[in-house]
Amino acid sequence: MTAIELATSNGTRMDDRGADAALAIRSMTVSYGQKPAVFSVDMTVPSGSMTAIIGPNGAGKSTLLKAALGVIKPLAGSATVYGQPVENARARIAYVPQRASVDWDFPTRVLDVVLMGLYRELGLLGRLRGTHKTRAMECLERVGMQDFAKRQIGQLSGGQQQRVFLARALAQNAELYLLDEPFAGVDAATEKAIIDVLQGLRADGKTVVAVHHDLSTVPDYFDRVFLINTTRIAEGTVEEAFTPQTLQEAYGGRLAMGQLGQTALGA
Amino acid sequence: MIGEEFVALSLTPMLIGMLAAIACALPGNFLLLRRQALIGDAISHVVLPGIVVAFLITGVVAAVPMMLGAAGAAIVAVVMIEAIRRLGRIEPGAAMGVTFTAMFAGGVLLLEQSDTSAVHLDVEHALFGNLESLIWLDATGWASLFDREALAYLPVELPRLLIVLTVVALFTWVFWRPLKISTFDESFAQSIGVRTGPLGFALVIVAALAAVAAFDAVGSIIVIAMFICPPAAARLMTNDLGTQVAWSVFFATLSAVIGYVLAGYGPLWLGADNAVSAAGMIAAVSGAILALTAIAGPHKSRSGAPAKG
User: Fold this and answer.
1) Confidence tier at B162 by pLDDT (50, 70, 90)
2) CATH number of the structural domain spanning residue A197
3) Residue A31: beta bridge partners?
4) Which of residues 196-215 of A touch B (CB under 8 A)?
5) Would residue B277 count as lying in a domain?
6) Helix, strand, or coil (residue A211)
7) In this structure, is residue B193 part of a structural domain?
């Protein structure tokens, strides 16, 4: 742990420290058009940790996750998961995209969405058995959505949609969970349900990384933070990296200093 | 209409209409859900210059060069649409609109300039096909279906469309899961290793194959209608993708049969003595089915409706 903190605090690149990390991103640069959205970002997520990626709107939080997963093509940079290239580690990764990124009018039912998480296991034509459905139902139970299994997904509220997405990730039975704004626009009950599941995952030794917006809940929910504003601002434990100084640097004048201080120190 | 006359004059055009309709409707389901429904429209327009160019090069209206020319034009169009979209950063609908209009217009100009008066290749044929002429004169009744000699003289479009439909159906069956997952949630599909780029491209190629085969037999009107109407009507009948695809096949078949019968006999029943275009009537029937489901379909209220709560 000490080695990681030392390395991240002065920003030097030490590739060996990524070897046993759950996720290690190196020199990631992504551009949509002329301006880079993410510029030369390094990130190291220790196994078994729970990390919040925070930063202002348009800071490249979601882009960084997508580039690490190969969902968008970076200009430069690489990502490894448990020391392996992402392409070889897909079975160990569960990704939850932003809820708003899909068409909830799609003709399918809640249970079908969860079963999509089993695709790597089933393959193209592998037979869907009763055990698969039982497992998918168990995942729905973990997020409290078992009564909605037969519902058309368009009939769900935003919070329910987010829980179904989380259930699909659980069905993947992964070790590294990457979530893009899992708490965006959800009700309080859903937020509680999701954070309980995520903390349960960490208790089981899994690794969780979530793009997060609500600074006030960072110290309660997460043990590590990663601050980004196109470039990496800070990375480390909440105590180290979630300070008024780093927040000021990431958000600039967009948050009042008092608010920043309260959020960071009030933990 | 049962018996000798039906088998010789109506069975094959009706079957060809059905096969063409189903072959287009199957990929149409996914194109519709991917907001790419107009791609069938685009393809059916852009194949015209390909077919004309094939005729100009070979000098004959033969199936193979026409299919190759059409397929080539379709591929050129797909590449052009993607290029306009990506290089010009223009929204897909506009990119398709520009491409198919320009290519169809080019095809019409080529057709006018070249001497095709000696062959059965004109703008009307491109629009309506020649469904009524795809008859099976060697048939003497239902027994001909088991007569090797008579079967050898089946219109070539029938086995060709049967093969194309088999390819389309196999593609849909084998790639059902990745097609469904990537249509619903593309970035999730990519995160679990589905190659969504090649898969989307393959879907368009399969749609183009169906469009070209159907275009040759039944003209562009049916192709345009069958890519959109049966899947759109099917979507209003169910909230399950598998059931939707089954409904779309049913609606495509229904359109072909009812459309063909109405075109051939409808005017007679109304006291007129001429038949109307079967292709036009099949397309019109599919439109009527869509209108009916839009009014009375059990899941019509869901479209664009915001989630409650």
Assistant:
1) very high
2) 3.40.50.300
3) A36
4) none
5) no
6) strand
7) yes
- Partners of residue A157 in chain B, C-beta under 8 Å: 307-309
Domain range for A171 is 2-240
User: Using an 8 Å Cβ cutoff, are A143 and A164 in contact?
Assistant: yes
- Please tell me the least confidently modeled range out of A233-247, A253-267, B39-53: A253-267
Query: Does the residue A115 lie in any domain?
Result: yes
Q: Number of structural domains, chain B?
A: 1
Percent of chain B at pLDDT exceeding 70: 92
Q: Is residue B157 part of a domain?
A: yes
Is beta strand A176-180 parallel, antiparallel or unpaired with respect to A93-96? parallel
Distance between B178 CA and the closest CA of chain A, angstroms: 7
**Chain B within 8 Å of A127 (Cβ-Cβ)?**
no
Q: Is A119 on the interface with B (CB under 8 A)?
A: yes
For residue B140, give the CATH number of its domain: 1.10.3470.10
Query: Is pLDDT larger for residue B215 or for residue A151?
Result: A151
Domain annotation covers residue B260: no
pLDDT tier for residue B303 given thresholds of 50, 70 and 90 = very low
ipTM of the complex: 0.88
The range of the structural domain enclosing residue B90 comes to: 4-217
Q: Do A157 and B302 touch (CB under 8 A)?
A: no
CB atoms within 10 A of CB B59: 11
Phi, psi of B190, deg, nearest 5: -65, -35
The total domain count for chain A is: 1
| C-beta atoms of B181 and A119 within 8 A | yes
Q: Are A228 and A250 in contact (CB under 8 A)?
A: yes
Smallest Cα distance from A101 to chain B, Å? 8
pTM of the entire predicted model: 0.86
> Per the domain annotation, does A111 fall within a domain?
yes
The answer, yes or no, to whether residue B122 has pLDDT greater than 90, is no
Residue A226, in any domain of the structure = yes
CA–CA dist A19, A1 (Å, integer) = 13
Query: CA A105 to CA B33: how far, in whole Å?
Result: 9
| CA-wise closest residue to A169 among A115, A94, A92 | A94
